[in-house]
Amino acid sequence: MQKSLLIDADKCTSCLQCEMACSFEHEGTFNPARSRIKIFEFEHGKRSVPYTCTQCAEAWCLHACPVEALVRNKETGAVEVKDDICVGCKVCTIACPFGTVNYNPDTGKVIKCDLCDGDPQCAEACPTDAIVYVDAAWTGLDRMQQWAAETDNKPMANA
Amino acid sequence: MSWQGQILRVNLTKGTAVAEPLNMEWANAYIGERGLGTKYLMENMDPKADAMGPDNVLIFATGPLNGTMASTSGRYAVICKSPLTDGIGDSNSGGKFGAFLKYAGYDLLLVEGKAAKPVYLHINDDNVEILPADDIWGTTVWNTEEWIKAKHQNPQLRIASIGQAGENGVLFSAVVNDLHRAAGRCGVGAVMGSKNLKAVAAYGTKGVTVDDPKKFMEVVKATHAKLAESGGRQELTEGGTHPMIDMMQEWGGLPTNNFKEVQFKGIDGVNPAATTTPNENGHTNLITNKACFGCTIACGRISHIDPEHFTIKNRPEYMHASGGLEYETAFAFGPVVGVDDVDALTFANYMMNEHGMDPISFGVTLAAAMELYEMGVLTKEQTDGIELKFGNAEALTVMAEKTGKGEGFGKELALGSKRLTAKYGHPDLFMGVRGMEFAGYDSRALQGMGLGYATSNRGACHLKHDVFGPDMEDVSGKGKAQPVKESQDMVSMIDSTGLCLFTTSGWGPEDFVAQLDAALPGEWTLERCVESGERTWTLERMFNQGAGQTGADDTLPKRMLEEPAPSGNAEGKVNELSVMLPEYYKLRGWTEDGKPSNETLARLGL
After folding, report:
1. Residue B261: predicted pLDDT
2. Confidence band, pLDDT 50/70/90 cuts, at residue A153
3. Which residues of A touch B288 (CB under 8 A)?
4. What is the ipTM metric for this complex?
5. Domain-wise residue ranges, chain A
6. Residue B2 and residue B213: Cα distance in Å, rounded?
7. Pick the CATH number of A1-52+116-149 from 3.30.70.20, 3.40.50.620, 3.40.50.1970, 3.10.180.10
8. What is the C-alpha separation between B503 and A72, in angstroms, rounded?
């Protein structure tokens, strides 16, 4: 079963534990500036929205890469950057419509979410389940269930 | 190790910004943040210097756990001499600024001197610039943050700034960061303003690395889980600190009408239920909760005001969400001034954040002014035509804005309660200690709290000790000195780690120590950490003595010592300070007149 990150902005408190966990997993330090997931705040913190790569099935970044440094991990479905191949040309950062592939000036390579090889640390660190890792085919299940619960099909006589 | 190993020294008179190595001897002796900042202050200025002059030093200090995955790792402290108390000013804040100052590579920022013209500091890793602030001087905190982010094309900048209150020398001005988090107390914003420093903007790409990553992550996982499971933590997440107001009302410790009373008849207009119940227009005040950096509690409240409310009708600029009420703000804009209109309280809160002021000191100062007005000492002509009576919501909201903008009677309120009541001939109406106003707990109903207020180095503060347990067991001074002393040392320790005091809703002392020990080289034991807390406490005391304070300043207003509480659990009682204080001095190893003895100083290496 392929899994996917499911993000529920309503649950995000903007604590940035995910950003620290992500950078720790990939860089060995707590460094939100090098996180592959970012939290954006709107209206004085009324809404906080986690945002990261959704691992497109037809990945623009992967197609744009001239040296084939972006490779699909068949098990996790993630598009991963092969650091030994990446030349830092940044064409993938232009190709990505969502801005989730970014250049790291410290290494001269691009960085993006790789789902931590199937154990995403952002989801692990999130204290409110705003980020969870679920069956990729059913990321809408909770919302479906929520709306289904709104349906009142009891007979009028019992109402 | 989890230090960056360097500090940034900025001299605004000379226009220089120079990095220098962190003094590791001091870091090892004082842990960080509050303790370390106090040590740097002590070594860099004369406590006798004018708090509003160029010789005061303004320090932004982080701790060893800032910027790590330890829960609540965003807490930083602003430390300087306080213009409100003329003693140690030590105020801490959450939000995200502190962590990003550290990510820029600086454990501590030390600001000396005074700029010739308004400036702001832009810190982006090794690039540090002192830039003109002419375009933002005279504007709000909210405008300042927006302007600086746009100017540097960097929405990720984290900004700590002052509003007009800090520029105008309102003695209880705050330094506000991330729009609505504040180093609120002690007038640290006024000191920043006196240096012509409008803002500090920081962004950094230098990660924080811990000494033993594997061990640290194990400890973090365990402490996160412990906090998540605790009932106290869950209550903070759900209600913030606000529910305390119903508890204090029931106990009879909720200061009302400038502490004349201890229970508030308008409680239903200011308690948590008032923020979650729709009003007659169907508007609900509270929207959601929000966390500071690294915080897995998220006690912060986000609220909005009814667009039809008198405070913002025809003022669309205030129809957005922002920081909502917590216990202290609800007390300071509610019971202590007798106001019971939740949206008026929320508007006053917006004013504090937007213009950069301490809600507690503002509210208690306004309460004193209201008492003077009702006594006939102040007249309507002096208060800009406003009926400054207890319970007048308009008086609250108009005066909050006037004080922030430096208009009319707001200029008088800017003095703080001690100077205002003295100016009008009634110094006994000042409700506070060392020039700083009380928080929302009555010293007659909470006796240990009274001793804590009287001995707190920064003036009347409820957050420098933790004796709610003993205080709510019996209403007397008996046996309170020891828990006050011990918790003061413990809080000093926690305040020095870079973490938030509210983690004690789930953690014990050993949890802080385990995180420090994994993050830092060397062996960090509970004994070492608590001794460090005591060292910090004593050093603060020495700063105050150097500034001219004595044991005579360890006192409470006459109202607490001579006027019995009119109702509640403490009905008929006064605070028993004279019983507790000698016992407290003895436990501290201080002389009878409140000076740390030579043996005590030697024991602490001072």
Report:
1. 98
2. low
3. 46
4. 0.96
5. 1-52+116-149, 56-112
6. 10
7. 3.30.70.20
8. 42
Quick one: closest CA in A to B294, which residue?
Answer: A15
B410 and B327 in a single domain? The answer is yes
In a domain, B212, yes or no: no
Report CB contact under 8 Å: B180, A15: no
> Are residues B121 and B194 located together in one domain of the fold?
yes
What is the rounded CA–CA span in Å between residue B290 and residue B349? 16
Which one of B62, B226, B290, B346 makes the best mutation probe of the A interface by having the most chain A beta carbons within 10 Å?
Answer: B290
For chain B, how many structural domains are there in total? 3
- Residue A159 binned pLDDT confidence (cut-offs 50, 70, 90): very low
pLDDT of residue A154: 64
Cβ contact A30–B180 (<8 Å): no
State which of B430, B452, B469 marks the end of a domain. Answer: B430
- Cβ(B56)–Cβ(B81) below 8 Å: yes
| Chain A with chain B: Cβ pairs closer than 8 A | 87
d(CA B275, CA B346): 10
Which residues of chain B are under the pLDDT cut of 50?
A: none
Do B508 and B538 sit in the same domain of this protein? yes
Most A-contacting residue of B3, B295, B301, B500 (CB-CB within 10 A), to test interface = B295
Same topology between domain A1-52+116-149 and domain A56-112? yes
Q: Is residue B226 part of a domain?
A: no
Q: Which residues of B touch A125 (CB under 8 A)?
A: 69
Tokens representing B200 are 């500090």
Q: Which of B204, B224, B294 sits opposite A16 (nearest CB)?
A: B294
Q: What is the pLDDT of residues B141-159, one digit of tens each?
A: 999 999 999 999 999 999 9
Q: Is residue B405 part of a domain?
A: yes
> Could you give the count of Cα atoms lying within 13 Å of B259 in the half-sphere of its Cβ?
31
The tokens for B398 are: 């108009």
- C-alpha B403/C-alpha B170 separation (Å) is 8
Confidence at A1, pLDDT banded by 50, 70, 90: confident
Pick from B125, B203, B209, B284 the residue to mutate for testing the A interface (most A CBs within 10 Å): B209
Look up residue B475 and give its amino acid. V
Are B46 and B31 spatial neighbours (Cβ–Cβ below 8 Å)? Answer: no
**N-terminal to C-terminal alpha carbon distance within chain B:** 26
Question: Using CA atoms in the order B135, B141, B146, B151, what is the torsion angle rounded to 10 degrees?
Answer: 40
Find out whether B555 and B454 touch, Cβ atoms under 8 Å: yes
End-to-end C-alpha distance for chain A, whole angstroms: 42
B287 touches chain A (CB under 8 A): yes
**CATH code of the domain made up of A56-112:** 3.30.70.20
Inter-chain CB proximity A13 and B289 less than 8 Å: yes
